[in-house]
Design goal:
By secondary structure, the protein is mainly beta. About 0% of the residues lie in helices and about 60% in strands. It contains no helices and eleven strands. Strands 2, 4, 5, 6, 9, 10 and 11 form a seven-stranded mixed β-sheet that branches. Strand 9 and strand 10 form a beta hairpin. The chain is globular.
Length: about 120
C-alpha cells in the first residue's frame, strides 16, 4: 500500500513564507513525476508546480518567482517552498506522485494540507 502524507500547512500573514513537505511511503519501486496542486473553495483543483525525475520544474504563472519545488529521491519526498504569500494562495494543497508499485504505474494523492494567508 502506497501513501502520500503532506505537512507544513498553516496560517500565515500576507508576505510570509511556508514550506510544505510530502512523504511517499509503502511498497514503492520507483517514482516518476511529483507535484503540488491546490484547490480553493468553489474552484477546481489546479497545478501549482511539478518536478520530473530529471529535468526542469514547471510552475503555474501565478506562483512563478515566489514558489520553488524540490525533491529528495533518496527519501521519496517532495517540497514546496512558498514565499511572498498572497491571500489568493489560500487553498488546500495536495501532493501527487506517479508511482510504480506491484507491477504498474499509478497516480497517488495525499490527503491535503490547508494553507491560509491572511491579509
Amino acid at each position: 500500500q502506497v501513501k502520500l502524507v503532506e505537512s507544513g500547512g498553516g496560517l500565515v500573514q500576507a508576505g510570509g513564507s511556508l514550506r510544505l513537505s510530502c512523504a511517499a511511503s509503502g511498497s514503492i519501486v520507483s517514482i516518476n513525476g511529483m507535484g503540488w496542486y491546490r484547490q480553493a473553495p468553489g474552484k477546481l483543483r489546479e497545478l501549482v508546480a511539478r518536478i520530473p525525475t530529471g529535468g526542469s520544474a514547471i510552475y503555474a504563472d501565478s506562483v512563478k518567482d515566489r514558489f520553488t519545488i524540490s525533491r529528495d529521491n533518496a527519501k521519496n519526498m517532495v517540497y514546496l517552498q512558498m514565499n511572498s504569500l498572497k491571500p489568493e494562495d489560500t487553498a488546500v494543497y495536495y501532493c501527487k506522485a506517479g508511482i510504480f508499485t506491484w507491477g504498474k504505474w499509478d497516480d497517488y494523492w495525499g490527503q491535503g494540507t490547508q494553507v491560509t494567508v491572511s491579509s
